[in-house]
């Protein structure tokens, strides 16, 4: 089914909904009682990917927008509104389970109700409610973990429901770290907001800055110089390698394989130093700005960096060869923390986690942006969905990224790396494939180029939503391993 | 398993010679501006107001490089890392000099500061050799490292963690967010308004060696720089 057939279908089933097709987009405005039906059709029959839920407020109206990626990767927006005096919507999460957390967030932040949603209330700023137990067995109890736990860990709280050794289910409680970045962005200049965008997740700053800048640049219609486009790819892929090295290090450490963890940690630190040498900052802060890059990277420095990264990958392959022969290591990853393909699709999971479960989606390929249409990266995929499959995806993506770094550099050519962004009012959505998966940035700016509205659908938010599917019926000592193989960020999810 | 032992031996020692010697490898520090500027356009362009006439409020700097790059000002940049400011009277007494336990608390950090703290355990920095140990429980901790802006949700958690620690205890604020408002603006609280900060480590994020310098300073093994906390 292509987008025009889909539009016809919607028109046929829901004649009251008004449709507006643009280039690579379809906007559907409908009554609030029709929205669940439209979303059901999009998600379950047309198999569109649910990206997230955005919202807005006018004088006396609140509206919510359900965002989907269409069959040809078009943006499909389903917009519905209600009067502020009657702040009630109809929940779509019964049909679109991926929208579950988004509706809970919207309900709490906007103070609206989603009729039919099984669990609304405190979500973003939770009070310490007594935990609800589902398990009715002798000796069953809830084991709390966090928010302050382990050695160096991000603040998050888990409730493991257990009957002793075996954990039956896991409930993560996030938003301890909610900094309200999206709200803080409102009223700031578009140039300042990129600094906030970098700090959704400091370890993937370049990708988030890129997502934000792409949205701003498409509003103003800026042509980013070719050299900047490819150097951005170069930096983004370097970031992917560094991020994945960190995750692999975490996986080795969680299984108690000290030497392997140290070996990867050496490579991780080297990757940080390479980033530091090339960009001046170990995490690439301050590099990506609306209009291009803040600094031209000399070709020889980039080439040295690629060669050094190649060397890292070569040594990493040596470690990988040893790892796959270490049975004590494999025993702790195989069949641990399994995410089935159905679960991954239902929960709208993204990135390496989804790709390890047979959902081979990657917007560098499906919705290519800045340079990836030329580079056409190969997307490594696995089927099993267990910890080992995820580890293999991380390894394979690192290999793929070094190839991309080199090719990006070959394509960069000479020229400027910055072009001035002309202020223009508007709203745009941009997708980037951050190391953790699809990140969607929605930005609205006014004529002065100040940000009026900013929403980010982060990969960690989507994947934390599905985390519990992997953390069911497992032995307690596997918990850190499952956590490490997900490699998620809390800051990115809490925003 | 013997393969791993061999692999480890083959890699050899990569650990930095700091604090015994100097560390000058490339890419170990994002740097901080040393001296300010009198160019009003550059001063106005700083998103966190870290520059004033000729001076730098280093604790505010978020490493956006706007002054040096976009504005093209020739800023004097310190690519070192011995940035930690320590309160003279807070330096720990002798029994703590060679072994301290540290609890790390993430009060709302973006992940970069925390990642740099994690690097302290990697073979390049290996802080165990200096007698610094990260502990999972505040009950055992002598030092609390706090990173990130203090969110509303984390504030009670921070207080409980601090109260759970035995005395004498010291508090280290890591990074621009914990020290000043950082990029998040005036509404975000500052750690020193809530608890008494003993060591301030500027940077966004401070590199691992800057954090090691802070730990050495609080245990009296290295001098800290002048107290600049506003």
List the helices and strands and how they pair.
The complex is a heterodimer of chains A (495) and B (230).
Chain A: H1 3-13, E1 18-22, E2 25-29, H2 35-45, E3 49-57, E4 61-69, E5 75-83, E6 88-90, H3 100-110, E7 113-115, E8 141-145, E9 157-162, E10 166-173, H4 181-185, H5 190-198, H6 205-220, H7 226-254, H8 258-279, E11 288-289, E12 292-293, H9 299-323, H10 327-333, H11 341-346, H12 351-355, H13 363-366, H14 372-375, H15 387-412, E13 426-434, E14 437-445, E15 451-457, H16 459-470, E16 474-475, H17 479-486, H18 490-494
Helix pairs in contact in A: 5-6, 6-7, 7-8, 7-15, 7-17, 8-9, 9-15, 15-17
Chain B: H1 2-11, E1 32-35, H2 40-45, E2 51-52, E3 55-56, E4 76-78, E5 85-86, E6 100-106, H3 112-119, E7 132-134, E8 143-147, H4 154-164, E9 170-174, H5 176-179, H6 191-194, E10 199-201, H7 208-218
Parallel strand pairs in B: 6-7, 6-8, 8-9, 9-10
Antiparallel strand pairs in B: 1-4, 2-3, 5-10
Count of alpha and pi helical runs of chain A: 18
Helix % of chain A is 40-55%
Q: In percent, how helical is the residue content of chain B? A: 10-25%
- Report the principal-axis shape of chain B: globular
How would you briefly describe this protein structure?
The complex is a heterodimer of chains A (495) and B (230). Chain A has 495 residues and is α+β, with helices and mostly antiparallel strands.
Question: Can you characterise this structure?
Answer:
The complex is a heterodimer of chains A (495) and B (230). Chain A is of the alpha+beta class and 495 residues long. Chain A folds into two domains: 3-115, 2-Layer Sandwich (Beta Polymerase, domain 2), CATH 3.30.460.80; 181-468, Cytochrome-c3 Hydrogenase, chain B, CATH 1.10.645.10. Chain A has helices spanning 3-13, 35-45, 100-110, 181-185, 190-198, 205-220, 226-254, 258-279, 299-323, 327-333, 341-346, 351-355, 363-366, 372-375, 387-412, 459-470, 479-486, 490-494, and strands at 18-22, 25-29, 49-57, 61-69, 75-83, 88-90, 113-115, 141-145, 157-162, 166-173, 288-289, 292-293, 426-434, 437-445, 451-457, 474-475. In chain A, strand 1 (18-22) and strand 2 (25-29) form a beta hairpin. In chain A, helix 6 runs antiparallel to helix 7 and helix 15 (387-412) packs parallel to helix 17 (479-486). The longest helix of chain A is centred in the middle third of the chain and has 29 residues, at 226-254. Chain A is globular and about 60 Å long. The model of chain A has no long low-confidence stretch (mean pLDDT 88). By secondary structure, chain B is of the alpha/beta class. At the A-B interface, helix 5, helix 8 and helix 9 of A face helix 1, strand 6, helix 3 and helix 4 of B.
